[in-house]
Amino acid sequence: MRQFEPVKFVIDSYLPEGLALLVGKPKVGKSWLALDWAIVVASGGAAFGDIDVEPGDVLYLSLEDNQRRLRDRFLQALRERPQPERLHIATEWPRLNAGGADEIEAWCNRVKQPRLVVIDVFGKVRPERSSKESLYDNDYQALAPLKKIADDRQLAVLVLHHLSKRRDTDNPFDAVSGTTGFTGAADTVLILKRSPQGVTLYSRGRDLQEVEAR
Hints:
Blueprint: E1 9-11, E2 15-16, E3 18-24, H1 30-43, E4 46-47, E5 51-52, E6 57-62, H2 67-78, E7 87-90, H3 100-110, E8 114-120, H4 135-153, E9 156-162, H5 180-185, E10 188-195, E11 198-205, E12 208-213
Parallel strand pairs: 3-9, 3-10, 6-7, 6-8, 8-9
Antiparallel strand pairs: 1-2, 4-5, 10-11, 11-12
């Protein structure tokens, strides 16, 4: 029987290598969580205070922020620490089918050890929808270039996306905006939800057990 190497994690127990969706309603804290992980990976720190992380190069695409807002967000997240040299930031990026995927590949070639790419948010780089494909195929194929990069480069691509405007369901994974093509394309799905009890992170994936953490 063929032997396979163990699954490698960028954030142990939460973010394995591969394509991951981080989904939640606006203002729930998706961007803050993604930024914290980006800083931790770029600096080789500890996620959630106690999960040691192997350092590597990080590309952080903060596509809904201008330079001033991004600076203020970073100052809060860094807590007077210097910005990691291995954290590369952009506030503008082409759509994936208009050179965006190629530019991510070029970044991977420039840096020493690409470990994490964060895209906040996916709608800013999503290819234009094709009228010749079904809604499912459109959603699935939209993520395909990022899935290929993650697999070929053995890194994590973390894509921020929104929950749908439908009523909350018993299963939080059923509320991802779009068709099941999104969740079908991703290796890992992370759902961030706020309730009277606080913020909960749900995770499910091909290479990890379902987790619910507050």
